[in-house]
Amino acid sequence: MLGLEGLFAEEGENFERSNESSNCKPGLPPPPAKRAKCGLCGISNQGATCYLNSLLQTLFFTTEFRDALFSLGELELGSLTKRNPGVKVRVIPLQLQKLFARLLMSDRQSVLTTELTDSFGWINNEALQQHDVQELNRILFSAIEDSLVGTSGRHLINQLYHGTIVNQIECSVCGKISEREEDFLDLSVAVSGTNSLESGLRNNYCDTETMSGKNQYRCENCHKLVDAKKGARLRSLPQILTISLLRFSFDLIKMDRYKETGKFVFPTSLDMSPYEEKSDGGALYELFSVVVHQGGAHGGHYTAYIRDADNLGQWSSPEEGSISVLGGQGSGQLDVIECDSPIELLQTILHDAPGKCLCMDRLGGEITKKTGVSWNKRFKRQYGPIAKFILKYDDKFLFDQSSNSVSLKHYATAGSSAPSNQNKEKVTVSDHTQTLSESAKTSRPPSPPPPSGYCWFHFNDSHVHPVRQQELESTFSGKSSAYMLFYRRVVDQSRNGFDGSVPASLIMEVTEENRELQKQRDEYEVELNKLNLHVHFSDWYTVSGGALQPCDYQTSCLPLTLDRRQNVTDLRIAVMELGGELVPENFVIHTMRELPSGYHLYKQLTGSEEVTLQSLGVGDDSSLFVWDGQTVDNMTVEVGEETEPILLNIAPPDGGDSLIRGFSKRMLLDEVTNMACEEFHLKRSCVIVQRLVGKGDQKLLAFTDEEMKTPILELKLNNGSEIFIAKSSEQNVRQVDSSQNLKVKFTVTIENRCQEGDGPRHIIQLQALSTDHVALLKTLALSRFGISEILDGGRLRLEHDTLGLRSPLCDEITLSEAGIGKDSKLVLEPGQAPTSNQITVNITTNSVDLDISDTVEMLVDRNQSVGDCLICVLNRLQIPDQSWHLRKTNWCGEAADILTDLDSTLEHSQVRDGDLLILEQGRIPPKGFISPEIWLYPMLDTAQQSGKSGFLSWLSTGIQNLWNTSSGETTAGNKKEALLVGEVEVSLDATLDDLKLQVMTLPAINDLGVPMTDFLRIRVIEDGELATVLKGGSQTLRKLRLQSCRKLAVQILPQEENLTANHIVLEVCQRIPETKTYAPGQELVWNVSQGATANSLKQVVADLLLIPVEHILVAKHFPKKYEWLIIKEHQRKSSGKGGKKKTPQKSNLRQSPYHIQDGDVLGVKNLQYDPLSHEDFNTEEDERGLEELRRIVEEKKKERDDKKTRKTGDFDFSDKKKRRPEASLTIKVDDFT
């Protein structure tokens, strides 16, 4: 039961999708299917709600619960439509009532639960989340109890489902029994270690545990630890007993959950008296629902086996019942097709398959999709395995062992009608199929039907079908095993059928829904069977180039709408009314199709009144041709698929215009050559016929004499194939230079997208040379389409099968330069075509302030500057603000480099035709300038307190007021809040002092009255943290490497500061003894002009914290690794020169491994008060971070190990990446107390 990321496919969901794709017209959604033959209704899966569906079906078939729910009226529950003042609307019970009423009376295969889940408060993706049905059972009952507070049904759940367990401890010395009662909604029984339900109950409620040794019990009477016996008994049992089977366990070695799939037997009749504290004789229960979990510990699918105690459904033998399969698109039927045997079922599925062939695995999957149940569950018991069944009936099916595939030999599906049985609902089963059924009945007599009230059905989301009680044994073990059991207490009084206690308002509502459904089905059936035909008349056509050609493409046909169930007589009458004088006196009608060479006629439509248009193969958007059956334009026309014309390009020997026309595919090549010689005025005996062979440097190879007597179809000549006529004096074989321009035309397809509306678009095919210009091709297309005027002259685009529409084509280039070749697809649309100096750019934006729903296409000059292009874009989008810039994208449309050089041309900036540019907010500074954001950071608290006199006393007050009154954007760095105070634009050749002066002009800083630049400190922000301090007021920003700087931090100092390269600004934090926390940090400016040694650092830290240097321990923090590195003095030897001995040198903390720099955090321990764990500087945050890093490493290691041991092709159910995190299950209920 997984959602979109599930490990298992939802059977119901897949079946519904298959139906939608097979039994609908494009743009015409089918109405809900009718209720199944069994008379019971399923529940649609919203994505991953099979666990909810199984529980709801169980509650619906719990008679006591359903009747009690229906007995609550509007006075107690309120109304969803009428708002009565003073009456609270209890939405969840009302929606449950509506759902149960639809399950009882709605004429549909399955009902929806969206209204119910909306009442749960599931408005996000809860329907796509994986949850446990046992957890849902408890939460749903709690929600129902809360919803019924203050009504007559407030004790409903308690009366039906609640029982009592008493836990007892008996002292072995004095015999005193201590008791503790517990209320239970369901009994949990462990599957591991037991093989039956009775054994599990005996372990829980009969066996006792001896408490001895270290586990002795302290008796209140004896006042000492004594041996005792501990156990539990059932004090009271509910009317509906719910048992949850604990099938999921945890493997402590693999550290992963797994599912117990061993055999666990449960009875249909259960005596609970052995487990009761005191039996009163009413402890006999009967099983009425089994919720089954299919899959593993991390996901799966839920179904339910439920006993119909109220005889709501119509049970039929699963082996003998008809098989329901939804009809295909061409069937013209709304409801399911009923197959009378498994042979007919396989024939129906294979008939709809591509090539009428499927592999065995795929065939088994299709059976499950089409019928909602697998072959093994439905047919294996009676007919055996599917492979043996197919081999047995080899006159119907062809089994290929090499490919393990099955194909169809002969078929007559239930969805297709023969002329002799048009008015029948089902196809008459062949004698062989009848023999199959008879032989099966004689070999295995059918089992008697179950008694009334003991009929079992399998509920799999939308699909419901009858099963025998013996099938429950299949849920004892395996991946598809029982997960929850529901038992009902046996009582003397019995019911026979449903008493009809549904509220009248719900009956009226569902009845109205059924009427609306039937209306939708009737309308859908009419639309489904509607044929939109195109009728062509012979007076509008001529014969040219071996095919029919329309005299005018704009008026070559008339539309006609019929029903596919009408016959040929109806068609002839409609054609005469439509055509009038255009219809010949003795006319015939042929099907017609457009080919590259023109139009061709195929099958003649004839037949009796019983022959429908559908049976003749007339489909939607078919073209029909009306003529006298002899000639068109006084020329004979060949019909049929065997005379279908193939378009050939025949090039003459002198390099003149090619002969491009269609030739019947049964025509011999020699006959084609004779016609070409007549066209070129050549003697047949003086020429030879050649074709191109090879790849790259192709050769011209002459056809042999045998090939000349062969039909062109057998020579593998297709539409657009090239043939060359050469004089016999020339060589039969010669090399063709790749640079030689052979004047051979090819076929391109052009679609007209100039017309308005959503109607069918006209498509034509034209022949052209690679040297033709795009303008010529556009002119020919406009002429063929009959377009005299088009906006801005019109333009052509290439349409790629994968990339879609490409950029508009320039009229001045050749087809070869435009990449147009054989079988290219083009689109003619209104708009201006680009010139040779123009390119097409597509503009999009990520800004929410701009209302740009789609990409904007623009023509710009390739030599235009980036700045001018930006102005054009802003003008096109009507943006008055100039603070924007353009950014390039990579091949997959992601943001890439910013176009910073506004003076550079688009071509120099590598902006190509068809590129996508992103318009982003923010002005690009001129070349050689930067415009970083300025963030105001506070100083460390201890540093501020060190000089709280004079200047700082009023300055700190001003800064604090600035923070308190600001409502602007803030960020975090070094765990201190920062404030965005503005943006400055400064030259890279300016000095640091110049930058500080500009910062002082910002309004927020200017209001503070900072007297001099020496009171400002500028720092670089890296990854949201304060880093390098900019030093040296005379240094240029270029030398300080600020070319790519986007953010700078400014700090206001309590006193003047003039740092040099020998100063390092650090943050020092003293660890609080015997804790994992640190005191607030203090700032330390360390002068390393005398050497950056460990001893020197310790001394300045000791002076700062007033701790004796011999009692401190210093460590540097590495936040990304969550580690602390203790700083120690490491002496290293220097290389001796001239034979001198090597002298030791003190370590430099600026180098490896410490790399001390601005912004580093140092931790300090006072060993006088924290003598233990010298090496431990970690905080709790560090330990959590280390644990997370270790977890990531272990996951990656486990993934690598799994990939090594995993078998090829196996499905990995333990793959962490495929496992979605579990989400909590909640149902929101209003307060009704």
Characterization of this structure:
The structure is a single chain. The model is unreliable at 1-23, 328-335, 411-444, 731-741, 943-949, 967-975 and 1207-1218 (pLDDT under 50). Strands 5, 10, 13, 14, 15, 21, 22 and 23 form an eight-stranded mixed β-sheet that branches. A hairpin with a 2-residue loop joins strand 21 and strand 22 (463-467). This protein has 1233 residues and is α+β, with helices and mostly antiparallel strands. The longest helix is centred in the C-terminal third of the chain and has 26 residues, at 1180-1205. It is built from 27 helices and 63 strands. 29% of the residues are buried. Helix content is 23%, strand content 27%. Helix 1 (11-22) packs across helix 11, helix 5 (91-105) packs across helix 16 and helix 10 (342-352) crosses helix 11.
Name the shape in a single word.
flat
Mean pLDDT: 81
Number of helices: 27
Q: Report low-confidence residues grouped into runs of 5 or more.
A: 1-23, 328-335, 411-444, 731-741, 943-949, 967-975, 1207-1218
Per DSSP, what share of the residues sits in E-state strands of 2 or more residues? 25-35%
InterPro entries: Papain-like_cys_pep_sf, Peptidase_C19, Peptidase_C19_UCH, UBL_USP40, USP, USP_CS
Protein name: USP domain-containing protein
Keywords: Coiled coil
GO molecular function, one term: cysteine-type deubiquitinase activity
